[in-house]
Design brief:
Rossmann fold, 4 domains, alpha/beta
């Protein structure tokens, strides 16, 4: 929430508006006085890394009454406030909408009581309301992610990772209870991200006789040498009769039926606290800026709207529509229309549920129709966190679709040497939380091994290939596609899933591993900023990875609140460096006496990190001193973030379904694939999962610098500059256009 508060205040001031803090939620608006204070640029400094909200929040009974709202209106009119930005859940947003609808009547009443003048009524005739959804449950319809959800997942996954090590040692079963009174999103995604054995959700209660089935599943897993069982329970879990299912009940069941050593852990309010994740900070900053723009463009006729995220696009939706749909889910659950409740949550939720079921429960061999196909999985390029989650997902989806799965070790070089083994369902157990690449990965391209790779594919009769990797994987795919004429072994469906910290693969807005790297950068910057505010008047210059792609530097700067980010995509010269030094000199005169500058490793061959450090040191002499820090390979390591586990799992499952589809098409037609559309990159573009033939992507690639020619995140550059107090032109969306909440088949799939 603090990132959103910061963005609203700074964007508001940037556009010349007066911005006020209302402390303690609606209670502060009703009480007035010192609860409503003007905010300035510095009031929101150093709050990005703080959890919770600096302006406080409170449930308020008074605001639910008309008298309460009358007082609130009086307090706002006295200060000339007619634009309200509300950050909260559906309750807060519904309240804001009622307030907006009653506004003119409230003012009339205040004028009659002689509390305000007739001029005031005319001057402040209407109230604009824009909402941002802050809720860790992600229970609001119309938005892909609410502010706070990703951070809550970080807390849950940290706990699960810690519990897994102890459960493994003692052969224990753990029942973990997570938040979500009416919404199972947190439970479902954390179950997907840690490979839990069983999950209980309010929207999708287990069918009759689940007790038996769950115990069978747990004992089967133990028999497969799995030393731990994890069961995740949403606090609002119910059975088909709407009776609650509690974690204690589940524990007692496991103990009496199976006699396993079982422990319950209730995460509780841990999930609301802690430092916000990089994703949440960027999301909230974008939403905050969009909210200010929406308020400035609003007219008396504009309905109250919610700014939200659709894929990576900021959109505005009618508040009333979203609230009605959110309440519709609850109604469906109360009336036991559970299938409908899951659908109302949106395609993303439904997709999560289907993939979880496919990956969690192995069908008995008798129920799997064998396809007679062999599919190989290979990792190529530099390691990225989340690769293992993608391999696990591919292997399990492949097996459940009847293929024989093969793992190729050590990239294309290992492929040529025949380091290929069949890989089974339980071989990939517990892989989701592992960083790096268990299969091993190399940057070597296939060109010089084509003959050997072809003969290995023939020897193991490989019918399809899934490549998980970065830019090298993309180049490798191009080389294999060019070699199809010479080697018919390569005439099989091939698909690449992008996995690289640099996020520089053409055909996809995101790649596996980038979110984890971004969190590493953000955490490090937080620590460095803390050290800098201790010493005062200090500027840090931090070098990030990414090759020529400035994604990590730019997004890292946005999420850590940096003063500048130097990237290759936006050429800069000595004058820009000079103006940045002057900007920092001005900043040192304020109460914020520290600076943070990010530099992408290849942004300029002459303006190196050392050069910039020396320039700043010289130019800032007597005003500030300088330190530099090269982050290096720590950006590739570490346990994958919830986003990367989830993204890797889902995109890889989708890739396997594509392979199955292609292999089915060609059954009985001889198995030669020669068309362009049988060799693709699977990427996420805005909100859609797209399969793009590599032949098509060639046109969109800058091969010399190993980046796509057009990159979506560059349009967030001005955002970073504005929030760091630079002048920048910010492209705004079309004012009049309010999207509607999409629902059903036309709603695109979100990751």
């Amino acid at each position: 929430m603090n990132a959103a508060v910061r963005a609203v205040v700074r964007m508001g001031i940037y556009t010349g508006a007066k911005v006020y803090f209302i402390y303690e939620g609606y209670q502060g608006m009703v009480d007035g006085g010192n609860n409503i204070m003007e905010a300035n640029w510095e009031s929101v400094s150093s709050i990005l890394q703080v959890g919770g909200t600096i302006i406080g929040s409170a449930r308020c009974k008074a605001f639910r009454t008309r008298e309460g709202r009358l007082k609130a209106a009086h307090n706002l009119v006295q200060r000339g406030i007619t634009n309200l930005c509300v950050i909260g859940g559906d309750g807060s947003l519904t309240g804001a909408n009622i307030f907006r609808e009653e506004w003119s009547a409230l003012l009339e009443e205040l004028a009659q009581d002689g509390k305000i003048s007739k001029e005031d009524v005319q001057k402040h005739g209407y109230l604009n309301v824009v909402g941002m959804v802050g809720s860790i449950d992600n229970d609001f319809c119309g938005t892909d992610m609410t502010i706070g959800t990703d951070s809550a997942l970080h807390r849950i996954i940290e706990v699960v990772d810690a519990i897994m090590t102890t459960a493994q040692s003692h052969q224990r079963t753990f029942v973990l209870e997570v938040m979500g009174r009416h919404c199972g999103y947190l439970a479902l995604v954390s179950a997907l991200a840690c490979g839990a054995d069983w999950v209980f959700l309010p929207e999708s209660p287990p069918e009759e006789g689940w007790q038996e089935r769950m115990c069978v599943k747990l004992s089967e897993n133990r028999a497969r040498k799995k030393r731990l069982n994890i069961i995740i329970v949403s606090e609002g879990a119910i059975d088909t009769q709407n009776k609650p299912i509690t974690s204690e009940q589940i524990k007692d069941l496991v103990v009496t039926q199976l006699g396993y050593d079982t422990r319950v852990t209730i995460l509780g309010h841990v999930q609301r606290g802690g430092t916000p994740s990089a994703f949440d900070r960027i999301l909230a900053s974008r939403m905050g800026v969009e909210a200010v723009v929406a308020l400035l463009q609003a007219t008396p006729e504009t309905p109250a709207c919610v700014v939200s995220l659709s894929g990576n696009q900021a959109v505005r939706l009618p508040l009333v529509e979203c609230v009605q749909m959110t309440q519709g889910v609850q109604k469906a659950m109360d009336e036991k229309r559970f299938k409908e409740a899951v659908q109302l949550r949106g395609r993303s939720f439904e997709g999560n549920l289907n993939i979880y079921q496919q990956l969690c429960i192995k069908k008995p061999d008798s129920q799997i129709t064998k396809s007679g196909c062999n599919v190989a999985v290979i990792n190529v390029g530099a390691p990225a966190a989340g690769m293992n989650a993608a391999v696990r997902s591919a292997v399990r989806v492949g097996i459940s679709e009847g293929h024989k799965m093969f793992a190729v070790y050590d990239g294309f070089e290992g492929f040529a040497k025949g380091q290929i083994k069949e890989i089974g369902w339980s071989d990939v157990g517990g892989w989701t939380g592992q960083g790096g690449s268990i299969l091993g990965t190399k940057r070597i391209l296939p060109a010089k091994y084509l003959k050997d790779i072809a003969s290995q594919m023939r020897a193991h009769s490989i019918n399809a290939l899934l490549i998980i990797g970065g830019f090298e994987a993309y180049l490798g795919l191009l080389e294999l596609s060019a070699a199809r004429e010479k080697h018919e072994e390569f005439c099989v469906p091939m698909i690449m899933v992008p996995a690289t910290v640099s996020n520089n693969v053409p055909g996809s807005d995101f790649s596996i591993g980038a979110d984890t790297a971004l969190n590493t950068i953000t955490d490090t910057c937080d620590r460095i900023k803390q050290s800098a505010s201790g010493t005062k008047r200090r500027v840090f210059i931090i070098e990030t990875m990414g090759g020529y792609c400035g994604y990590l530097a730019n997004m890292g700067a946005l999420s850590a609140g940096a003063d500048a980010a130097y990237i290759f995509e936006e050429p800069f010269d000595i004058r820009d460096l000079q103006s940045n030094v002057e900007h920092l000199t001005e900043k040192m005169k304020t109460s914020i006496q520290r600076g943070l500058v990010l530099r992408n490793e290849s942004c300029n061959e002459n303006y190196t990190t050392d050069f910039i450090y020396q320039l700043y040191s010289e130019e800032g002499r007597g005003v500030f001193d300088c330190r530099k820090n090269v982050l290096g390979h720590m950006q590739q390591g570490g346990a994958p973030s919830p986003f990367d586990r989830n993204f890797g799992t889902k995109i890889s499952a989708r890739a396997m379904q594509w392979i199955t589809g292609k292999l089915k098409e060609m059954q009985g037609k001889g198995r030669k694939f020669v068309t362009d559309d049988s060799i693709c990159v699977l990427g996420i573009n805005q909100r859609n999962l797209l399969f793009r033939p590599v032949a098509e992507l060639k046109e969109e690639t800058d091969f010399e610098h190993r980046i796509p020619k057009v990159q979506w995140w560059l349009k967030l550059r001005p955002l970073m500059k504005i929030l760091a107090k630079y002048k920048a032109s910010f492209e705004v969306s079309v004012p009049s256009q309010l999207d509607h909440v999409h629902f059903g088949p036309e709603e695109p799939a979100a990751i």
